[in-house]
Amino acid sequence: MARKLADVAKQAGVSEATVSRVLNGRPGISEATRAAVLTALDVIGYERPTHLRVRRARMVGLIVPELQNPVFPALAEVVAGALAQRGFNAVLCTRTGSMSEAEYVEMLLERQVSGMIFAGGQYAEADAPHEHYERLLKLRLPVVLINAAAEHLDFPRVSTDDAVAMEQAYSHLADLGHERIGLILGPPDHVPSARKLAAFKRVAKVATPSEFVERTRFSLEGGHAAAGRLIERGATGIICGSDPLALGAIRAARRANLSVPGDLSVVGFDDSAFMSCTNPPLTTVRQPLEAIGRAAVEMLVGQIEGSPVSADELFFEPEMVARGSTGNAPGH
């Protein structure tokens, strides 16, 4: 019995005394600690005491940063539908409220969810707190991350190929005669933005990218401010890390009395809902959300069912969608 307590305590990251109190149903134990001990029992393969044999809920936590960017509701719809087809219910959690991502993780663990899928979370921010992810790794709970993550977080991942996306966007503008091409990305620690920047530097070759790279938060207002600075430096084309950033860039052009695409061409990223209905319709790089969402669910369910799932990142190729916000460079 002592060996059993020691094994479970080590797996759960708690003391042997805490394990004993959980197994004996003693009071004074938080739900999060209780969940960690029970998960450790399951992972190691020890049989739960009769009074603790609770069937894990067929629920999956889906954690997204916001719902204002249309890409996240669209992705959530795909994931929830695919989970339903496999007999699971999605519990949607968004960081727009008062709860942090770490607090959502605790809540989901208390609810005995079967696994978690994260999209656009703190895992993509190298300098953000990652302790809740490390706890999930330790618990070995099935988890899938959608899009690039900090290198030390060894979860299965499904991503749009950011390098290919940048190559497509840059080539599109270059083919239209643009030479002064600007780039609007997220913060310096944002991993997908870092991948886009590396590809931008590679395809720009003899150009001096640093002069035409702006960092901001992912919002319409952030895109507006960053694009204004790029316009002042003479950019004739701007590639944006999201569609809201691109819409902000179009607004900045209009405030500067420039026409889009006559004076400035703008490329977005995602191909969110209604981007074909903007004025002008937005040229953007489409993420294959249907394929990404379904692949994430397959990888998660595979883990839940005990099948081997590779921790290697699975890349999906994006698609360039040319619309009315891009045209020939001025003078061409």
Notable features of this structure?
single chain; six-stranded parallel beta sheet; 12 strands; 332 residues; alpha/beta; Rossmann fold; 3 domains; 434 Repressor (Amino-terminal Domain); 11 helices; 16% strand; six-stranded mixed beta sheet
Detailed description of the structure:
The protein has helices at 2-12, 16-23, 31-44, 71-85, 101-110, 131-139, 162-175, 191-204, 220-232, 243-255, 289-304; strands at residues 59-64, 89-94, 115-119, 143-146, 157-160, 181-185, 213-215, 237-240, 265-270, 283-286, 313-316, 319-321. It is elongated, with a radius of gyration of 23 Å. Helix 8 (191-204) links the parallel strand 6 and strand 7. It is built from eleven helices and twelve strands. The model has no long low-confidence stretch (mean pLDDT 90). With 332 residues, the protein is an alpha/beta fold. Strands 2-1-3-4-5-11 form a six-stranded parallel sheet, with helices on both faces. Strands 7-6-8-9-10-12 form a six-stranded mixed sheet, sandwiched between helices. It has three domains: 2-52, lambda repressor-like DNA-binding domains (434 Repressor (Amino-terminal Domain), Orthogonal Bundle), CATH 1.10.260.40; 59-160 and 288-317, Response regulator (Rossmann fold, 3-Layer(aba) Sandwich); 162-287, Response regulator (Rossmann fold, 3-Layer(aba) Sandwich). Helices cover 41% and strands 16% of the residues.
